[in-house]
UniProtKB/TrEMBL annotation:
The lineage of its organism: Bacteria, Bacillati, Actinomycetota, Actinomycetes, Micrococcales. Keywords: 4Fe-4S, Cytoplasm, Disulfide bond, DNA-binding, Iron, Iron-sulfur, Metal-binding, Transcription, Transcription regulation. This is Transcriptional regulator WhiB. It is found in: Cytoplasm. [4Fe-4S] cluster binds at C44, C67, C70, C76. It comes from the Bacteria. It comes from Cryobacterium shii. Belongs to the WhiB family. Binds 1 [4Fe-4S] cluster per subunit. Following nitrosylation of the [4Fe-4S] cluster binds 1 [4Fe-8(NO)] cluster per subunit.
Length: 106
């Protein structure tokens, strides 16, 4: 380990950019050129994915609760609508809710 000052005991490379680490909430939109970079800031990426893909007739309440406080909810919903996602909870909406939203928009 290289030291910048042998008296301080602080390594030269002590700072690691949190954006490079993928720390949620510190990335600017598409800062790395990846249109899906928002996904690493999503709360669902940090929880059980099964809650977001319930079996037919299963509850969506837990997934929607998580989505309600997610800071990338809008990007998630936009992605789902643009890519015609047919399964799961995206941006806080079920497939049925996204379908209704598309119909109202057309």
């Amino acid at each position: 380990m290289a030291l910048s000052d042998s008296r301080s005991g602080v390594p030269e490379d002590w700072f690691i950019d949190p954006v490079r680490l993928g720390v949620p909430g510190v990335r600017t939109e598409n800062s790395d050129g990846d249109p899906l970079s928002w996904q690493s800031d999503s709360l669902c990426a940090q929880t059980d994915p099964e809650a977001f893909f319930p079996e037919k007739g299963g509850s969506t309440r837990d997934a929607k609760k998580i989505c309600s406080s997610c800071e990338v909810r809008t990007q998630c919903l936009q992605y789902a609508l643009a890519n015609d996602e047919r399964f799961g909870i995206w941006g806080g909406l079920s497939e049925r809710e996204r379908r209704k939203l598309r119909k109202r928009a057309s």
